[in-house]
Amino acid sequence: MKNKLGQQHICVIGDVMLDIFSHGGIKRMSPEAPVPILDIKKERSCLGGALNVCHNLVSLGADTEIIGVLGDDPAAFQLELLCEEKHIRRSGLLRDNRRITTCKTRFFDGDKAVLRVDKEQRDPLSSGLEKALVLEIDRALERSHALILQDYNKGVLGPELIKGTIEKAKEAGIPVFVDPKFDHTDSYAGAFLIKPNRREAEALLSYKIDTTEKAVKAAETLQKQLHCDNLLLTLGADGMVLANAAGSEHIPGHPLKVADITGAGDTVIAVVAALYCSGLTIGECVHFANRAAARVCEEPGVCPATPDMIFPE
Question: Among 37, 187, 275, 288, which is least packed, fewest CB within 10 Å?
Answer without folding.
Answer: 37
